[in-house]
Amino acid sequence: MNIIEIIEKKKHGLVLSKEEIYFTIEGMMNGTIKDYQISALLMAICLKGMNAQETTDLTLAMRYSGDVLDLSSIGMTVVDKHSTGGVGDKTTLIVGPIMAELGVPVAKMSGRGLGITGGTIDKLDSIPGFSSDVSDEKFMELIKTVGMVDAAQTKNLAPADKYLYALRDVTGTVDSIPLIASSIMSKKLASGADAIVLDVKCGSGAFMKDEKSAKQLAKTMIDIAYLAGKECTAIISDMNQPLGYAVGNLLEVIEVVQFLTGKRQNNRLLELVIRLCREMYVLSDMFEWLYKDEAIKHLDRRIHHFNFESKSFSDTDIIMECPEIYEDAYNRRAYSDINPDDILEQADPAVRFCESIKDDAIDRRVIDRLEGIIYDFIQGGRAYKKFKEFIAAQGGDVRFIESLEDDEKVKEIFANELSAQITAPNSGIITQMDAELFGRASLELGAGRITKEADIDPLAGIMLDKTVGDKVEKGEVIGTIYSAEKEKIKNAINILNEAILVSEEQYNKE
Ligand code: URA
């Protein structure tokens, strides 16, 4: 076997064998295959594609190039949630505590932001005292005691992906679905989850700009998970506008606090949170325990496409059904330290109600009930309590978190940061807030980084008062931007003026 033959084969659109793919990744890692040869192969993959088996083999070869976490001692199915990256996406900080409160273990390894895309660890790092540097022992202990942990990816997870990504970045080979899917899934599979819920972002602020390619990416990642023996579902969610009101790091934590205390909840964020929680819960042991094995067999695993405008999900292709995975989870649960009975005892009576539902009733009624429970956990303050417990367990200052509930105290925190208001240029309806431009403005303000090593300003970013669909009068405040530097504020205002459209025509129609 030699690399030239492998490149030639892919150049002619032929299917690579598992042995050829492993040989390539091993050779790349030990230096026997050169960067220019890998680059040529990447371009051939970009142009000719890869089938599901090849993409899975590439993913697994990358996964095994470094550490692979073993979370089996948790004794329950670990469900992970992964977003392909967006602007203002703080869902992990909300979904995690809800899941932990529902008894589903959340073992999260998050990344830092890069480019216009924010990262959960940067948001958490804006909380004084919070540490995302967690030892292996502490990681397991937090899952067992708090039910949730979020650690920075310090492990040597999928180093072949880092190597390949660096080459893709400089050879024009980033935008290939098999390469993106294998890059994301190699890290997911290395971080030890048994089941994965993917939030594939679609729109101007995302990798995937249109629905067709977002669906294709979702399907490719689900195929990889399936062939690797993991349960997986995907949601495709809108990223044409920022998610929620805040874009930045501490600003997004403030929005999370406002959301969990019920002070201010953005509808799009609420609906996405409920949907992600529902998907995670359905894949967890808790759901299986509640609805029993037979019921599970009636569940379709689908790609869901969420349309924020009509506030509805449409189900598209049925991707897979894999009841044996549930059976396996059921057996493993016998060793769990977490007893579902204990959790149900403390839970809302609505959760206990679910237990009495008959197997064949796994229908819309059950799903509605589940969504109702998740909603109650948010509105009743249980998720906020768990959020504070999680922050405290990783060293974060809970009094600081509580101070974010008070607008006056927030003003004090931002007292030394420069700010400016974005106002409506005319009366009308806001018809556009371009997510990519919001991402660029936030990067300009200092909330993001261009290179992995760059520093960020935790206070920088954008806090919106209005979002798409809102009516505004000329001069009315649409939002406030924060930065440490005057020049950055000026540049960000220019970008945001381009990003926001206020339609007089729409206004006159109303
Ligand atoms: N995120 C990744 O981890 N890899 C890609 O290739 C694209 C997005």
Number of helices: 23
- Strands, count: 14
Distance between the termini: 69 Å
**Helix share of residues?**
40-55%
Ligand roster: uracil
Summarize model confidence as the mean pLDDT: 84
The secondary-structure class comes to alpha/beta
Largest sheet: 5 strands, mixed
Radius of gyration: 23 Å
How much β-strand is present in the residues?
15-25%
Strand order of the largest sheet: 1-4-5-7-8
**Residue ranges: pLDDT <50 for 5 or more in a row?**
292-308, 311-363
Q: Shape, please?
A: globular
Could you list some keywords that capture this structure?
23 helices, five-stranded mixed beta sheet, globular, binds uracil, 510 residues, alpha/beta
Can you describe this structure?
The protein is an alpha/beta fold and 510 residues long. It is 50% helix and 15% strand. It has a 5-stranded mixed sheet with strand order 1-4-5-7-8, with helices on both faces. The longest helix has 17 residues, at 211-227. The protein is globular. Mean pLDDT is 84; it is low at 292-308 and 311-363. Residues 180, 183-184, 207 line the site of uracil. Uracil (URA) binds next to α9.
